[in-house]
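Late entry, evening session. Most of the bench is empty. Finally got around to the prediction I had been postponing all week. Sequence below, unchanged from the version circulated by S.P.
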Amino acid sequence: MTTLYQFCSNQTDKLDMDKNTKYVGQPIFSQILSLIDDSLIQSACKTHKADKFSKKLCFKDHLTTMLYCVFARCTSIREVQAGLELCEGKLNHLNLQKVPPRSTLSDGNKNRTSDVFGTLYQSLYQKYKHIISDSLLKQSIASKLYILDSSTISLFKAILKPAGRKRSNGKSKGGIKVHTLLKADSNMPSFIKYTAAALHDQRFYECIKELPDGSIITFDKAYINYPQFVKFSERDITYVVPQKDNADFISIKELELNELEPNVLKDEIISVKYTDQVEETSIKRTLQLRRIAYYSEKHGATFVYWTNNTELTAADIIAIYQNRWQIEKFFKKLKQNFPLNYFLGDNENAIQIQIWCALIGLILLQVLFNENKANMAFSILASIVSLHLMNYISMTTIIEKYKQRRKRIKSDQQHKKKRHNTPPCFQIQMNF
C-alpha cells in the first residue's frame, strides 16, 4: 500500500509548472487563510477591543502565527519562530509584516483575551455551517439536535486543578475540560466552555443558555440532573439520556409497541422521585418520563433511554441517542489531526487560545474538504497540509489528483478480476 509520504512526493513530482492549473501564486497556508474574511477578524477584534493594549502584535498577525503553529504542528515558540523565519520570502502572501519575536508572541498569548478567538470561531461556524452539514438524521430532527459532552486535555503542569486523586508520589498533572455543544447537522461545536478537569460536568448547565427553546439535546449519564430536566421541559426542550444503572422508578403506563420496530422491547411512562434543593430547603418532587428499552443486534445488548418527548416514535428517540457518537468522533478528529500535547504557554489563557485555533483550523479544513467533495480520509488531507504548508500547490489539484488515482486503482482491480475469472466450463476442460 502506498504510504502518505510516497503519495505526497509522487503528486509533487507529477505536477508540472503549468501555473494556470497546477501551481498557484499562493502557498497552501495562504489558500486556507483566504477562507477567513477580514470583516470577521475586524468584527471580533472590535467586539473585544483585542488591539487596544497591543502595539507590537495585532490580532490578525497573532491569529496567523497561531494557525501556522496548529497546521505545522509546532511544539514550542522556538519552532514557530524558526519555521516562519525560513519562509521569510513568502510572508507577504500571509499579510504578515514580520515574524513576531518569541517574547512578543508569549505576551500576546498571555494578555490578549481568548474570547476574541472564540468569537471568530463562532462567526466562521455561522458562515460555513451550510457547507459542513452532513447529517443522516431526518432534517426536522437534525436541525434541532444538539449533542453535549466533554473531553479532558492533559497538561504537563498543574495549571488547572487535575481530576481524580493525587498520585502516590504527590505529583499530578493539570487538565482542562472542554465542554462542547455539538450541532448534529454540521458535526461542529456551536458552543464551547472551558473548565478545570476536576469540576463536575453538571457545572456546564450554568452557561447552557445558548441552547434554543424547542430544541433537542442528548448527553450521557454524567449530565443527568432531574431539576435541570424540569427546566428543559419548561423551555419545550426535548432531552434523550441513557438510564442510570442504579435508577429507581415506578412504571405508570405501558405504551403500544409498533410492529415495524421489532427491536423495541418496551415503551412506557414512568415516575421518578428526586430531591430538589431550593435555597437551604430540600423538597421532594416527582417527575414523569418516557422509558424505551431497545435491543441492538449489532452489539448484542439492550439499551434503555429516558426522554420527556411522547410524540416522536421510539425509532426516532433511539436514533437521536445513537447520534451522540458524533461528538466522540469529533473529539477524535480534533486530537488526531491537531495534536494538543504541547502548549506555547503555561497559563490558562494561552491554552484556550491554542485550543480555539485548533478548532478554527478544523473548521477551515472541513470546509475545504466538503467544498471539493474529497474522497480521501480527512487525516490524509490534514497531513498533506502539514507537509506542504508553504508550497505553491493548489489544494484543489491535490484533491482531484487523489480522486483520479483512486478511480485508476479501482479500474485496475476490476480489470484484473475480470481477466482472472475463468468460466467453469473452461476450468473443467483445462483440468482434463
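Two things to note before I forget:
Residues 414 and 420 are 10 Å apart (CA to CA).
The longest helix spans residues 395-420.
Will write this up properly tomorrow.
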